Every structure is written in structure tokens, then in C-alpha cells.
Amino acid sequence: MAPPTASPTGTHTTAPARPGAMARSSPKRLKIPSLGVDTPVVALGLAADGTVQVPPIEPHSPAGWYDGSPAPGQTGPAVLLGHVTVGRYGDGVFRRLDRMRPGDRVQVVRADGSVATFAVERVQTVPKAHFPTRAVYGNVDHPALRLITCGGTKLTGGGGYPDNVIVYASLVAGP
Hints:
By secondary structure, this protein is an all-beta fold. 3% of the residues lie in helices and 39% in strands.
């Protein structure tokens, strides 16, 4: 049960309880209504250098789920990545990720047919050199979601982007 909290009138209320964790089921589709995103999700592993793979750089590149993280809806931070731009192909699936705001909803359709719905808690832009690995991948005691893309002003000469945009969200509804 959630701990009691004080209301503006001084009476105590009970904070809404978080939904329980869901069984493991891989994500198949990601929907972000506030951004108009509706994309397939592909599984990603680790690259040869030990970093998380990124989705392919091709037209209509989907979002990718790091399959070394929990599945969306399981306890812990499920990590999904997407491109802000896709090389010569234009905008990526996470082009407007930095526009998300607390309270925005994110839906993940899972292989078992269930839908895990998350609410955004915060959005953070950080230099890639100071990526918050522990905040993104570290253990949490509830089902959480992390959405990651590149950010900042595109570097000249094909250098990519200097920053990462990270969305932190928690499960608010499951089956």
C-alpha cells in the first residue's frame, strides 16, 4: 500500500498505488500519442565494444528494446532507443522526444497481447560524456521505462549529436 500523504487541507490521503509488475513479454510496438509515434520495436543486444546496439539507420527505422533490460512492465527499467535523425533518410522515430512532458503517456504493446502504459515523470538532456548510466540502467523497485535518443545541436562534418535525451517513466496501467 502507498504511504499516506498530507493534502493541502492538512488531512491525510493515500497516494495511488502503482500497478503490480507484469510477466516478461517482449515489446512489439511503441505508441506515444502526444508525439504521434506508433512504431514497431526490434530487439537490440550489445555491440562488439560492449555498448548497447542502436536501431538500424534506414528509412522508417523502428525503436529498439535493449533485451538485456527488463521487458516493459517488469520490475526495473526497460530501455528503448530510437534515432532523432536517420542519416540521409531524415527524421527518426524519436525526433521530438525532447518535447515530452511529465504526465504524457507511453504505451507498449507486448508479444502476449497486453499493453503496458507508462506516465512520464521527467525528461533530461545530458552531454554524452556524462551519460547517467546508473539512473538509466540501475535497479528500481517498480516497472519503469527509459526512452533514449540523441539530442542537442547536430555537429558539423557528420559528427552526430553531443547530447542524449532521456525520458523517465513509470508504469501506471497494465492488464
